[in-house]
Amino acid sequence: MIHFLTKGLLRDRSRSLFPVIIITITVTIVIFAIGFMKGSMNNVFLDTAVIISGHEKVVTRAYKEESQMLPNDLALLDVDQIIINLKKKYPDHFWSPRITFGGLIDIPDNNGETKEQGPVIAMGIDLLNKNSRMTEIWGLDKRLVQGRLPKTSNEVLISQKLATKLNISIGDTATYIGTTMHNAFTTYNFSVAGTFDLRKGQADKQMMLVDISGAQEALDMENAASEIFGFTHSLFYDDDKAVSLRSNYNNSYSDTSDIFSPIMMALRDSSQQMGTMVDFVDAFLMIIGGVFLVIVTIVLWNMGLMNGLRRHGEFGLRLAMGESKGDVYRSMIIEAVLIGFVGTIIGTSIGLTLTYYFQEYGIDYSEVVSTMSTTSMVMPNVFYAKVTPDLYYIGFVPGVVATVLGTMLAGIAIYKREMAQLFKELEA
Amino acid sequence: MKKILIYIISLSSLTSQAENITVDAIITKIDKNLNAKSRILTSKMVVHGRRSSRTIESKNWVIGTDKAFTKYLSPAREKGMKMLKLGDKLWTYSPQTDRVIQISGHMLRQSVMGSDMSYNDMMEDRPLKEIYTSTISGSEILADRDHWVITMEAKVKGLPYPKRKAWIDKEYFLPVKEELYAKSGKLLKTSTLSDFKKIQDRWFPSKYKYKDELKRNSKGTEWIIDEVEFNTDIPESRFSKALLRK
Q: From the CA of B37, how many Å to the nearest CA of chain A?
C-alpha cells in the first residue's frame, strides 16, 4: 500500500513536489530560527560566564559578600582538593580556578625608573595546563593582536587598550604593585608576551591576563584562588540545571555558620541585572519560539487542508469506482505522513546544516555591540547559532503533525458529502 | 590631724592646678611627649587579619613630617623591602623586582602592609598645636585613671583626620584613646596608646592599637615600639633614593 502510494506521489508531482518544498522551507526556517535564537542568547551568557561568573562559580561565603572589593584575603584555600571533589560530583562540568586582583601596573624605562603607571584589573586563569579549556573559551588565539600566548608563569597578556595607553611593547617588563592575599604590599615583575582585544567595548579596558600560577606567586596565594569557575562541557547554559546544581552543592557543602565555607553561585546570581536577563531570555525564547511554531503549524495545516479539498473530484471518482470512504481517507493520511516525513527530514537536515554553519562562523555585530557591554554583563559581538538536541525533532511538529492534521480535517468532508455532490465537483 | 589637713589642702591644690590648666598647655605637653625633630625607631606591627595574624618588623628613620625611610626586617617575603617618603612622594624598593617605584601621594593614606595603619599614621609627626584647634569637653575616668576629653578641629587643610576626640591621661599627658573622624563626622579609625615609658625625658607609648572602622570585621593592628631614639642626628644621605637599592 505504502509502495503504491509512494509511486503515485512520485509520478504526480502536483501532489508531492510542491508540498514537500513548502514543508522543507518551513521546517528549515523553524530549525534555524530556534537554533539561532538559542545560540545568540547562549552567547550573551557565555561571554559573561567566561569573564565574570562562570556557568557556576564557587567562592567563600565571606568573599561573596564583598566580591566587589576583590577581597583575596577571603579566597578559597586548598583549591586542588575542592576541584577534585567538584569534578567527581559534577562530571558534566569542567572546573577551573581564577584569581581576580586589582592594583597598579608600572612600566620602567631603560634605567628602571617609572615610565608609565596605571590601574589594572588582572585575572589569573589556567592558561598553561594542557587540559585547560581557558584559552579556547576566551578565544585568545583569535583575539591576540600582537605577540603570543604566555608560555611561563611570569608572562602576561595585556589588553590592547591598556598597552596603547601605557605605551607597552612586547617583551617589556610590567611590574605589578598591589597587595598579597595577606594584605601585604607586594611588587612583582611580569613580562609582556602579547596583547589582546576582546572586542567587547570597555570590558577589557584595564585587563591583564596571567596564568593562575603567576598570580598565585605574585599574591602569595599558594593553592588558593578567589573563585572556581564551572562550565558545562557543551558550553551551553541551562538555567534550570545550573540553579539545581547550585542548590545541591550548597545543601551538601556550604556551612552557613562558617564565613570561609564554600558557596556556589549560578550565572544568574552574579548580579541582579544578570538574573533579570536570564528570566527575560527564558520568557522571550518561550514566547517567540511558541508563536513562531504556531504560525508555521497553521501554514502547514492550511496547506494540508487545501491539498485535500483540491482533490475532492478525484475522491468522488474513486468512490464511484467502488473504493470505500475509509480507504480513501486512510490513503490521504498515509500520503500526508509520507510527504510530511520527507519534507521534515530534508528541512531538518538543511536547517541543522545552516545552524551548524552559523554555530561555527557566527554573524558579526561588532559595531553595534561595542557600546553595550557593561561591568556586570558582557555582550558578544559575534552571534553564533547553537545546535541543540531539540532541533532534531522539533521540525516534526509543523512538518508532520500539522500537515497530517490539515489533511485529516480536509478528509472529513469525504464522509460528510453525498456521492452526487462529489460527482458534481468532478464535473466542474 | 594637722598632717591630714595639710595633705587634703595640698591634694586639692594639685587637683585644682590640674583642672585649671588650659587646653593649649595640655596640647603643648602632649606635643612635647610625642614629637621630636627626628626619631629612629624599631618596631613590630602585628596585623590581625580575618584569617590569621602576622608580624612585620621594621626600622624607621624620620625627620619632621617630610622625610621618612623605612626598612623592613621580617618576615622573609617583606625582608629587604624599603620605602622612602619625601614630602608627599613615596618610593618603594623590593629585592624581588629590584626596582625603585614611585607611588602616588594618595597611597600615603592607604594601609601599610595590609594593616589598619596608613603611612600617614606611621610617619605623621606634626605638632597637634600647629594643625588643630582644641577644646576640653570634660573629664572621664578610664581604667581608674582620670582623663581630659579633648575635641580637636583641623585649622589647616588636607589633614587625613579633620576631627579628633582624645582622652588624655592627666598624669602622663598622653592620649590613651583617640577617635579619628572625617570632615563629614564619620568615624574613620580608633586608636589606643598604652605601655607608657619614660624615654629621654618624655613619656612615650610603646604600644599603639589602630582599628580601621571602615574595614568590616577588622580586628585591628598593634604597633609595638621596641626601641626609639629622639632628636638623633640622621644624615641627609639616609633619605636618598640611591639608598633604596643598597
A: 29
* A240, A266, A292 - which closes a domain: A266
- Alpha-carbon distance of A237 to B18, in angstroms, equals 75
Question: Is A271 inside a domain boundary?
Answer: no
Q: Respond yes or no on whether ipTM tops 0.90.
A: no
- Closest partner residue to B101 among A62, A177, A183, by Cβ? A177
A374 pLDDT above the threshold of 70: no
Q: What is the DSSP letter of B111?
A: B
Residues of A in contact with B99 (CB under 8 A): 106, 108, 112, 175, 187, 189
Count of domains in chain A?
Answer: 2
Is A113 in Cβ contact with B100 (below 8 Å)? yes
Q: Assess whether pLDDT exceeds 70 at residue A369.
A: no
Q: Is A255 found in the same domain as A304?
A: no
Cβ–Cβ gap A184/B56 under 8 Å: yes
Please tell me whether residues A171 and A299 are part of one structural domain: no
Question: B-chain residues within 8 Å CB-CB of A114?
Answer: 101-102
**In terms of residue numbers, what domain contains A106?**
55-266
Spatial separation of the C-alpha atoms in residues A7 and A26, rounded to whole Å: 25
**For residue range A10-59, what is the model confidence (pLDDT) as tens digits?**
667 767 778 888 889 989 998 998 899 888 888 888 888 999 999 999 99
pLDDT tens-digit readout, A390-410: 899 988 888 888 888 878 877
Please choose, from the candidates B71, B69, B59, B60, the residue with its C-alpha nearest in 3D space to the C-alpha of residue B95. Answer: B71
Task: Please check whether residue A334 lies inside any domain of the structure.
Answer: yes
Residue A41 lies in a domain: yes
Q: Which domains does chain B have, with CATH numbers?
A: 28-245 (2.50.20.10)
Q: A134: which residues sit within 8 A by CB, 6+ positions away?
A: A96, A125, A126, A127
- The residue out of A200, A233, A266 marking a domain boundary is A266
Q: Is A186 on the interface with B (CB under 8 A)?
A: yes
Closest to A45 measured CA to CA, from A380, A276, A387, A287: A380
Question: Structure pTM?
Answer: 0.75
pLDDT at residue B8 is higher than 50: no
